[in-house]
């Protein structure tokens, strides 16, 4: 049985009444502390649940294995995403969170993992704000799940050499075809999260009324 002990994590209670929960998934080489400032900026007052990826790639934390940069071990991604989904369910019970008001946010490897949660575990989260992420299953077509009611913000750089803009647009299409309401925000930069993209995501989060 999965418990909250299964992932090293930080949990910060909501500081606002009736606030949603933000699940934060860091990028390669970061840890559970990395995205806390982003979480506080994106969703002021929300509860923050920020685990640490369990895959060790030469000392760098990740969420799933990759064969090389840009080539994922998709079976590992599927297995690890299931484990993470079970952790989120355990944390929902432990911290008494509203399971209908969990929003995932991630950067890079964390964004790919958040996209995996959306496509492989529909209904786990109400929405997602993903940055520098792409289509996580790579060559595989995701199942025709129903994502209607799921609201997604995708922030990507058109000059990103790691997650190409084509990968980001493919993810947007996969989510949209499955009924998600997708807002895409393309910036001129690379594999990064520029302040103006954070600002657009903040506005989106506020309007989404999670
Ligand atoms: C990945 O998931 O491998 C990302 O796209 C790239 C990275 O995390 O460095």
Topology:
Elements lengths: L8 E4 L8 E5 L10 H7 L4 E5 L3 E3 L2 E3 L3 E3 L2 E2 L1 H21 L7 E6 L1 H12 L6 E5 L19 E7 L7 H13 L3 E7 L7 H14 L2
Parallel strand pairs: 2-3, 2-8, 8-9, 9-10, 10-11
Antiparallel strand pairs: 1-3, 4-5, 6-7
Helix pairs in contact: 2-3
This protein binds D-malate (MLT).
Write structural notes for this entry.
This protein is an alpha/beta fold and 210 residues long. It has a single domain, classed as Alpha/Beta hydrolase fold, catalytic domain (Rossmann fold, 3-Layer(aba) Sandwich). Helices cover 32% and strands 24% of the residues. It is built from five helices and eleven strands; from the N terminus they run ββαβββββαβαββαβα. It has helices spanning 36-42, 74-94, 109-120, 165-177, 195-208; strands at residues 9-12, 21-25, 47-51, 55-57, 60-62, 66-68, 71-72, 102-107, 127-131, 151-157, 181-187. The strands form three sheets. It has a seven-stranded mixed beta sheet, sandwiched between helices. It has a two-stranded antiparallel sheet with strand order 4-5. Strand 2 (21-25), helix 1 (36-42) and strand 3 form a beta-alpha-beta unit. It is globular. The two termini are 29 Å apart. 42% of the residues are buried. The structure holds D-malate. D-malate (MLT) binds at residues 27-28, 66, 108-109, 112, 162-163.
